[in-house]
Amino acid sequence: MTFVKLTKNKKNIQFREKVMELAGDDVIKCYQCGECSGGCPEAAAMDLLPNIVMHKIQLGDESVLDSNTFWICSSCLVCSARCPKGIDIAKVMESLREIKLRSKKSYVELESLSKQELEELPQIALISSFKKQTQ
Question: How far apart are CA 67 and CA 134, in angstroms?
Answer without folding.
Answer: 19
